[in-house]
């Protein structure tokens, strides 16, 4: 007979107690997974699954129960009321910490006994941790942390045969189990001390209590342990390339994939698992004087447009732009300007022709369909691994407005609003996506043809019609572009000379840039013919 099953009453009592504890927990996990019961906090900490096996579903159910117990008549309870209400919709990871703080503030100012038993603060910290957020203050007190850690280490040692369970699981036996498992200088005590010391260090670091004193820029923490002591940058040294990468602005776009346990969810998870909770780069703002100069070289008639757009970049660390609608007659260079702006900002770009679009496929299709796909911006972020792609909606006023299969204007509304864009729910992921940093540029010949709700979400910027005064600058820019398109070197794009300029001026009096480009193509062809003759 094995030592673990020697038939003694004490051993049988321990096994019965353990089995009796596990069976209800398993049953509760199954019930929680099916959405019948909301597990208590102590059951979650012992391994019970979340309600419907989903953090958001568990939080919504828990917040609804807490709201039923909350006395909202007191003004001091209003912050918690609003915070819990947020958890019942589509909360962001930080919303859980906001709710925890609101609860802790309320309990200090005006304790509500009906909420105390629900342990709202600790549970919200648990939700935040499951979403990858490290709180700046502990969700579990140091005393409770020590108690949990002690019990965990003791049972770990017992499971590995390094300590003995009591013969009888009585009050005295249970009380003596932990001290005996964590005797002086034993492995259990060493493990416990290390765990709690690390916890204290992490909490102090998150509060900034161990921040370095003011000094020159340091190497990133992930690099520093692998550097020789003499390689550490001295005070006052210029930033290194690694420093610049560490300080580059980033944003987390994807935090979860909904219903990931289903076969369809597994396929989507495979597409996005490398991007979950991964900070994706944002583009730093370039030198605005250089950017303006480059744009005006090619679009000398669009100085007002350049200044209106570039003012959004002033004072920012990274490229951020309110949705812009460029309005002007056909051929004034709206789409070309938008594409060139994206290129000069060094951002991934896609032009989406809206003419004739009569459905909402732009916003993605559900994974249940064979043709299921994420929304176009979601796909761009995934493909380019960049949080701030440029989406150019070309001829947006020509999109169909019928709602039979959904409509593009309706699909765009939530994406263009900053508040809703932060947690826009992609039907393919079945989870929120942070589209706050997507750059939206749209073009239209006539803004009055747009639905009012969509037009109001854009900043309308008129694009002037180019005139004869802009002929030389426009012609030289087009000449350079045509030379590059042919695979020639840029320096071969010689500016138009006097005779060529006079010939162009005789045929083009202003208006469409498409017409002018065809004329510049004729000038370039004439140059080729002259070179061939000579």
What would you note in describing this structure?
This protein has four domains: 3-142, no CATH class; 143-206, no CATH class; 288-462, Rossmann fold (3-Layer(aba) Sandwich), CATH 3.40.50.300; 468-533, no CATH class. The chain is an alpha/beta fold and 534 residues long. 48% of the residues lie in helices and 7% in strands. It has helices spanning 9-33, 41-45, 55-69, 78-87, 93-109, 113-116, 120-130, 142-159, 171-181, 187-206, 241-247, 263-272, 288-298, 303-310, 334-344, 376-384, 408-416, 418-421, 452-455, 471-485, 498-507, 513-533; strands spanning 250-252, 279-281, 324-327, 349-353, 390-394, 424-426, 431-433, 439-444, 459-462. One of its GO terms (molecular function) is ATP-dependent peptidase activity. This is AAA family ATPase. It comes from Muricoccus nepalensis. It holds the Pfam family AAA.
Notable characteristics:
534 residues; alpha/beta; two-stranded antiparallel sheet; 9 strands; ATP binding; ATP-dependent peptidase activity; AAA family ATPase; Lon_Prtase
């Amino acid at each position: 007979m094995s030592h673990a099953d020697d038939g003694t009453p004490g051993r049988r009592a321990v096994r019965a107690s353990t089995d009796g504890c596990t069976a209800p927990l398993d049953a509760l996990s199954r019930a929680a997974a099916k959405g019948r019961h909301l597990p208590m906090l102590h059951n979650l900490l012992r391994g019970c699954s979340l309600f419907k096996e989903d953090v958001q579903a568990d939080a919504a159910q828990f917040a609804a129960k807490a709201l039923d117990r909350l006395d909202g008549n007191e003004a001091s309870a209003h912050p918690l009321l609003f915070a819990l209400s947020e958890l019942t919709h589509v909360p962001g990871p930080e919303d859980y910490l906001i709710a925890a703080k609101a609860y802790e503030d309320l309990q200090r100012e005006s304790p509500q006994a009906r909420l105390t038993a629900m342990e709202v603060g600790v549970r919200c910290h648990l939700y935040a941790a499951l979403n990858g957020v490290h709180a700046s203050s502990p969700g579990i007190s140091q005393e409770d942390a020590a108690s949990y850690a002690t019990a965990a280490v003791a049972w770990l040692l017992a499971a590995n045969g390094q300590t003995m369970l009591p013969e009888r699981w009585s009050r005295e036996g249970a009380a003596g189990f932990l001290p005996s498992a964590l005797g002086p200088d034993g492995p259990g005590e060493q493990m416990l001390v290390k765990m709690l010391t690390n916890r204290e260090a992490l909490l102090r670091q998150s509060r900034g209590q161990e921040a370095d004193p003011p000094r020159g820029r340091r190497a990133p923490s992930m690099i520093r342990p692998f550097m020789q002591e003499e390689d550490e940058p001295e005070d006052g040294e210029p930033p290194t390339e690694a420093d610049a990468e560490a300080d580059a602005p980033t944003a987390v776009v994807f935090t979860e994939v909904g219903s990931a346990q289903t076969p369809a969810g597994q396929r989507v998870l495979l597409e996005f698992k490398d991007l979950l909770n991964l900070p994706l780069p944002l583009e730093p703002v370039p030198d605005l004087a250089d950017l303006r100069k480059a744009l005006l070289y090619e679009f000398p008639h669009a100085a007002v447009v350049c200044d209106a757009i570039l003012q959004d970049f002033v004072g920012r660390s990274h490229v951020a732009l309110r949705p812009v609608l460029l309005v002007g007659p056909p051929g004034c260079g709206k789409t070309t300007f938008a594409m060139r702006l994206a290129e000069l900002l060094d951002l991934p770009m896609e032009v989406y022709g809206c003419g004739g679009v009569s459905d909402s496929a732009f916003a993605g299709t559900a994974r249940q369909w064979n043709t299921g796909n994420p929304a176009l911006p979601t796909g761009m972020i995934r493909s380019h691994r960049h949080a701030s792609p440029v989406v150019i909606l070309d001829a947006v006023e020509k999109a169909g407005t019928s709602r039979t299969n959904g409509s593009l204007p309706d699909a765009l509304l939530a994406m263009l609003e900053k508040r809703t864009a932060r947690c826009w729910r992609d039907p393919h992921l079945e989870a929120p996506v942070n589209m706050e940093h997507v750059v939206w540029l749209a073009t239209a010949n006539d803004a009055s043809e747009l639905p009012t709700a969509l037009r109001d979400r854009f900043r309308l910027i008129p694009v002037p019609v180019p005139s004869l005064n802009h002929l030389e600058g426009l012609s030289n820019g087009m000449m350079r572009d045509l030379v590059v398109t042919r695979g020639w070197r840029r320096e071969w794009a010689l500016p138009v000379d006097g005779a060529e300029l006079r010939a162009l001026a005789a045929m083009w009096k202003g208006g469409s840039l498409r017409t002018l480009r065809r004329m510049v193509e004729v000038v370039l062809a004439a140059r080729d013919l002259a070179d061939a003759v000579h």
